[in-house]
Amino acid sequence: MYHRFNENKYPSTNIKMDIFEEHINIIKNSDFSFHNPNNFDEQFNKPKQKKEILITIDDAFESFYTEAWPYLKENKIPFILFVSTEPVGKRGYMTWEQIKEVEGNEFANIGHHSHTHEYLIDVSNEEFILDIETANKIFLRELGYIPNLFSYPFGEYSKFMKDYISKNRKNSYSKTQTLQISKLNFLRSKKIYLILIAILMREMFGTNQKQILLIIL
Ligand SMILES: [Zn+2]
């Protein structure tokens, strides 16, 4: 899960592009492949034959567009860009034009990341619903659909939030699939490092594959 690229004044959410490219190269040279979430709904419950890594980017910062996007595009690396609708077009964030340009590529997927990107766990249930529905309307207006993948801001959610997101898959936005990357909240941006450490450990020590999958999942 990545956030900012080459924005070194935000060290906790930033990654330097040379390090990011190194991550991608390590994954390419390992026996892991990049997961394309296009068929996420279908593939979600199927046992996995191959070990796959899903690249996700949160928040749609402008630095994603200027720094990482040209590289991912050139290499056709699949990813999900989780967009919060309120900050779109504000200083430091991507515009709808840029999001649409990215979205027009088969390997690029847009995910739902709420409207305000507030700590939604702290607001009332009504405010939470209003936030999600506001984002739904904006996504519909700008992209013509409501993204079917959802990621909780800050990775935090209550039972109510989880139930609401899951329940509404069948109703107002039937394809919404709750992507619970948030379970890995405590790993946050360090997740990819753990995956890479797992790959390297196996290369070096021949750690058995089950253990490695446990580390990843
Ligand atoms: Zn976020």
Walk me through the structure.
The protein is of the alpha/beta class and 217 residues long. The protein has two domains: 4-186, TIM Barrel, CATH 3.20.20.370; 188-217. Helix content is 41%, strand content 12%. It is built from eight helices and nine strands. The strands form four sheets. Strands 5-6-7 form a three-stranded parallel sheet, covered by helices on one side. A two-stranded parallel sheet has the order 1-2. Strands 3-4 form a two-stranded parallel sheet. Strand 3, helix 2 and strand 4 form a beta-alpha-beta unit. Helix 7 (191-205) runs antiparallel to helix 8 (209-216). Zinc ion binds next to loops. Residues 58-59, 113, 117, 153 line the site of zinc ion (ZN).
Write the layout of secondary structure elements.
Elements: E1 4-5, E2 14-15, H1 17-29, E3 33-34, H2 40-43, E4 52-53, E5 56-58, H3 62-75, E6 79-83, H4 96-103, E7 108-112, H5 125-143, E8 149-150, H6 159-167, E9 177-178, H7 191-205, H8 209-216
Parallel strand pairs: 1-2, 3-4, 5-6, 6-7, 8-9
Bound molecules: zinc ion.
Zinc ion (ZN) is lined by residues 58-59, 113, 117, 153.
